[in-house]
Design brief:
Number of domains: 2
Structural class: alpha+beta
CATH superfamily of the largest domain: NADH Oxidase
Order of helices and strands: HHEHEHHEHHEHHH
Helix content: 40-55%
Low-confidence stretches: none
Number of strands: 4
Length: about 260
């Protein structure tokens, strides 16, 4: 493999165990410039990146801390402000634009992670912000109430110690569909369950599911981690908070 592929195949997540070593400003700027080179729809770059340096603030916002954190937001504010400046009307606040902006934002996020790894800097991608209270998040980050949504965070730093293994991935046959989508056969489903059960692959979130009395890792995943599906599709809890926040931001319109 060439150097680029070696970087991609060496990616791993550091779950908050970052050392006190700081990232240089030149490396940080390189990561940010690389993120901005990511492909984006209609040349809009419909995202904003908030750089955090205060470790205590990071922990307060999303529960982890590192040398730096990058909060990636789907954001049309710049485009709307520029339109007003030039005397135009512009409004991309709808669910279609939100999905498009989300794609732009996530692509920039992953590019930042790859660039960081190429510089020897590890990372953690987390949705911890969204487990926090949205009103608190918007206040602490000074986010615009409309046209902006904090999507994902990348914590950057240097690992305090090397992880014991790199997390695995399921085989291509369970993910890649050639020509058209095909449901997995019973035989393939059985093989996919076996892959999750293979302790050498380290695919799942935990390794002690057998000690907890489960026949398969996915038994633990479906019953303990995912929980039971709602009987009625009624928005409540975090789901309701998400929907209300998206409506407040203008990305979700009420149904007639």
């Amino acid at each position: 493999m060439n150097e680029t592929l070696q970087t991609i195949f060496s990616l791993r997540t550091i779950h908050g165990d970052f050392s006190e070593q700081e990232i240089s400003e030149s490396d940080l700027n390189c990561i940010l410039e690389a993120a901005q080179r990511t492909a984006n729809a209609s040349a809009r770059q419909s995202y904003s990146i908030i750089v955090l340096e205060d470790r205590a603030r990071m922990r307060e916002l999303f529960g982890y801390q590192g040398s730096r954190a990058l909060v990636f937001c789907v954001d049309f504010t710049r485009l709307m402000d520029t339109a007003r400046y030039l005397g135009h009307r512009f409004d991309n606040d709808d669910i279609i634009s939100f999905i498009t902006g989300t794609i732009d934002t996530v692509l920039a996020t992953q590019t930042a992670v790859i660039a960081a790894k190429a510089l020897g800097i590890d990372s953690l991608i987390t949705n911890g912000l969204q487990r926090n209270d949205f009103e608190k998040v918007y206040h602490l980050l000074g986010l615009p109430e409309a046209s902006c949504f904090p999507l994902i965070t990348v914590v950057l730093g240097y690992a305090r110690q090397e992880p014991p293994y790199q997390k695995g991935r399921v085989s291509q046959e369970f993910v890649v569909h050639r020509g058209q989508y095909r449901h997995l056969t019973e035989e393939q489903l059985a093989r996919s369950v076996a892959e999750y059960d293979d302790h050498q692959k380290h695919i799942g979130l935990i390794d002690d599911w057998e000690k907890q009395g489960f026949a398969h890792y996915l038994d633990w995943f479906y019953t303990k981690w995912s929980g039971q599906p709602a009987v009625e599709r009624v928005a409540e809890g975090k789901v309701r908070e998400f929907q209300e926040r998206l409506m407040k931001s203008g990305f979700w319109w009420p149904m007639e």
